[in-house]
Amino acid sequence: MQNKNYGSDSGSGDPFFRSNPSGSMNWNTEAASSAGSIDTKDLSILQDEMHSEALLYKKCTVYADQFTDQQLKNVATTAAEHHRKHFDSLNGYLNSSR
After folding, report:
1. 6: number of CA atoms within 13 Å, CB side?
2. What is the distance between the alpha carbons of residues 22 and 63, in angstroms, rounded to a whole number?
3. 43 Cβ partners below 8 Å, 6+ apart?
4. Global pTM value
5. Could you report the per-residue pLDDT of 17-60, keeping only the tens digit for each?
6. What is the number of alpha carbons within 13 Å of residue 95 lying toward its C-beta?
7. 2 vs 4: CA distance, rounded Å
8. Is there a contact between 14 and 80 (Cβ–Cβ < 8 Å)?
9. How many Cβ atoms are within 10 Å of 29's Cβ, its own excluded?
């Protein structure tokens, strides 16, 4: 089995991920750095949750692309959308607390 780095952006324009020089996964925290009304601990928790949701979204989309069975593809796509909505909800909360 070939080892692929799904954590870095493969040029697909995925808004959740971008590559850094080390090739490791990052999520967009530009909004997080300017959120002044959230204390450091809560911001860290929020970033961790956003990271988890982004990673789950990415994994589900990769699985959906690899499945050949249509039912499994649909389940993975639905799960990906579920995690994307969670990410968007957390991001909305972060942006509203500026």
Report:
1. 14
2. 25
3. 32, 35
4. 0.64
5. 543 434 344 445 554 445 457 899 999 999 999 999 999 999 99
6. 8
7. 6
8. no
9. 15
